[in-house]
Amino acid sequence: MTDPDANAPDADKLRLARQFIEAIPHSHALGMKVESIGGGAAVLSMPYDLRLVGDPRTGVIHGGAVSALMDTCCGAAVMSHPEAPAGTATIDLRIDYMRAATPGQRITARAECFHITRSVAFVRASAHDEETGIPVASATGAFTVERMKKGGAA
Amino acid sequence: MTRPKPEPVQLIKQRRDGALRALVSGVPYIQFLGITFERRGDELTAVLPFDDKLIGNPMLPALHGGVTAAFLEVTAIIELSWSYLWEDLEAGRIDAASLDPMHLPRLPKTIDFTVDYLRSGLPRDAYARARVNRSGRRYASVHVEAWQDNRSRLFAQATGHFLMPDPAQNG
């Protein structure tokens, strides 16, 4: 994959964000991959993995693993917003499960930070398996906006 | 009039613990996160022992928000399944000896799940308990609370709605 932001002034920042997200121990454990990130939006994907199965009779991935992908993707979208916070944490996250993800397929989440204030970032996201159409799940969440301390002193 | 002789305590424990083990051990994702369940009568407490792979913010370090969500959702689903499994088990409609992960009643499906993050999850063990607030023929509403050091200082809570399994599909 070529980096579409390679020439953008924020390229270093985005590359750092990608490295940072993929290095998060739990994201790494789930095999999450940053497909794209920037401008308050992020796309993250996660491979099908037998360890993540929630119902042994159907082989469908557990909703909790989808939640982990959605949470990370929403957090990544907030971090990449032009009014980028120094850090962020989830205040609340609601997930609607529309249908079971097809066993064996990769799950891709897309998140967009559609509004940000001095203290709160509002995010929505959706997750698809390899079939287009109805998403597997959708999410809405509120995240904290932690500002850089002025003057360098923490 | 004579009362029936009470069942030997070991037999009761064996049946209940066996059913719980079958329910929990059959779900790979529960094993992946390392969640276990402790039982006192019908009351369940989920335990998430701390592990490095559960970290979401290496600087603090803090539990991953997704891990917290998953822990709460697992607790809600097991509590809900346990509540209807318990009734069948105690009424003798299910034989505990025949229960294995592939022959359990079907699990409820999550319709929606809302997590409230109250404080960051510390790098130590976490506990959770769920309460089934309403359980109808088709839908159920479950509330879950999770804490670490102090039972009264929750680090997260959640409410979820679930679609109950179709009784006709249970085998």
Helices, strands, pairings?
The complex is a heterodimer of chains A (154) and B (171).
Chain A (H helix, E strand, L loop, with lengths): L10 H13 L1 H5 L3 E6 L2 E6 L6 E3 L4 E2 L1 H17 L10 E8 L9 E10 L3 E9 L8 E8 L10
Antiparallel strand pairs in A: 1-2, 2-6, 3-4, 5-8, 6-7, 7-8
Chain B lengths: L8 H17 L2 H6 L2 E5 L2 E6 L6 E3 L4 E2 L1 H26 L18 E9 L8 E10 L3 E9 L6 E10 L8
Antiparallel strand pairs in B: 1-2, 2-6, 3-4, 5-8, 6-7, 7-8
Helix pairs in contact in B: 1-3
Task: Kindly describe this structure.
The complex is a heterodimer of chains A (154) and B (171). Chain A is α+β, with helices and mostly antiparallel strands and 154 residues long. Chain A has a single domain (11-144), classed as Roll (Thiol Ester Dehydrase, Chain A), CATH 3.10.129. Chain A has three helices and eight strands; from the N terminus they run H-H-E-E-E-E-H-E-E-E-E. In chain A, the strands form two sheets. A six-stranded antiparallel sheet of chain A has the order 1-2-6-7-8-5, with helices on one face. Chain A has a two-stranded antiparallel sheet with strand order 3-4. The N and C termini of chain A lie far apart (37 Å). The model of chain A is unreliable at 1-7 (pLDDT under 50). Chain B has 171 residues and is of the alpha+beta class. Chain B has a single domain (9-169), classed as Hotdog Thioesterase (Thiol Ester Dehydrase, Chain A, Roll), CATH 3.10.129.10. Chain B contains three helices and eight strands; from the N terminus they run ααββββαββββ. In chain B, the strands form two sheets. A six-stranded antiparallel sheet of chain B has the order 1-2-6-7-8-5. Chain B is globular, with a radius of gyration of 17 Å. The model of chain B has no long low-confidence stretch (mean pLDDT 91). The A-B interface holds A 23-29, 50-57, 61-65, 67-72, 75, 89-97, 100 and B 26-29, 31-33, 52-58, 64-67, 69-71, 73-74, 77, 101-102, 106-107, 109-117, 120.
